[in-house]
Design brief:
mainly beta, 2 domains, 37 strands
Amino acid sequence: MKINLSGIKNIIALFLVYFLTATSSYATKLPDYILNTLKSELPKASVRFDGLVSLPDGTVYLPVLPSNPKKNPSGKVVGTYPANKKLSQLPEVVIFDSNFALLKVIKDKNGRPTVTDSKNIPFIVKTGIFPQDMLVPPGLVVPEDMKIMLGDLQIALQSSRVNDIFKENDSKSTSAKSEQKIIPVPYMAGKTLLISTLDSTLLNVIPSDSSTPKFSLKLENLPKFIQPVCDDNFILVAAAGKTYIDVADIKQEVLAKKIDLSYQPTEIILNKDKTKAYVAVGDDQSIFLIDLKTMSLVEKIKIKGYPKNIAISADDKQIAYMDKNTGDIYTLALNETYLNKYVYNASNISKIVIKGNNIYLLSRTENELQVIDTEIKDIIYKQPVAKKPVDMMLIDNKLYILSASNELMIFNLEDYSVVSQLKLPAQGFCKKLVKVPSSNLLLITNVSDKKYFVYDIEKNTILQTVNTSVYINDLQLLNKRL
């Protein structure tokens, strides 16, 4: 009887892919012993949520999960190519004592990303598999006899959108005024602004010492929100009409992942240590919980009403939000109970802050701050504010209240007194407050003028007015220069 060896090889290959995919497709967190070795030997290396390892000089390693891991590993490097290299010397192949491996991404003669020649890679590594949700460098070329390692992993084309989100700004039409250099005030130097507009799918990336974009992020539609996360190494972006959140990897300049919610995300808030994101959607009675360490959807929390103006308490114990259809205000306990309680009915609320048993509402209809006691479920205090209040921020037991009529009010929560009212030097409509990390500064945006203000909390004064070449609908701050 003639045996079809080729057919048997194919069956074995298919079985291996099935086995490895079934057992490790979600195991994207690298083992602790690998992380410890990387921390010791390559202290500047960063590990992305899908397992990809990168260094500041642009070096990238692809992790290979072993099909037959050895027991009781220590994370010791037992083999490299070229041979006898230290991990700090960045060899092209690294094998650990558990059979876990790292493959360095290099360039072939045509400049395409690939890995070292197949003959340099031991068979035990070739029987492993890449993490199945990993984004490998777009256009990666894999040797034919190593393609079993891909499993169901898809390699994006060089022309794919994942490799097309970051674009250098090539506009030649900016005026001399818009091209001016800015001398940032202290604490603003070396930072980057992410600015979206009302009429463009581009997200403008502007250094704090410039008035014009250095480059732009090309989105599929108008942005609903932008949110830097994970020490500003990633940006979460939701676009109008899309049911997912894009995760942009700033270091690799690619879209690293899509987090699909099945509903259009509209708002996002982070917990205090920025390890979790809570996302509201416009078309479902739900708030979605995302683990920012793994960039994965953890839970869909069913709630009453359709959430809008979501806010989280400073102690991470509860969320407050408004039902966009009825104006009902609710609280949601952030524990295993997810207790959801109705508190009050309000109208035309632009911003919510929650602290202890009190909810602070900005009413655009009444032009006032309303204080709601969640226990008695009623207003306990009202404070008139300037016309069209649009944003509010709690800092050191004081509420900073911004009105579109270009006024900033400071309200003390200790004695319910107005500390100060500052008229802003603006012609248009102010919209948003942005805290500058580790400083006493707030950025104040203006939606109809191409400018933002740098405000000092301690001095209660505007330190600087910065002109930009674009209108500002939303602004987020990166604590680094790109």
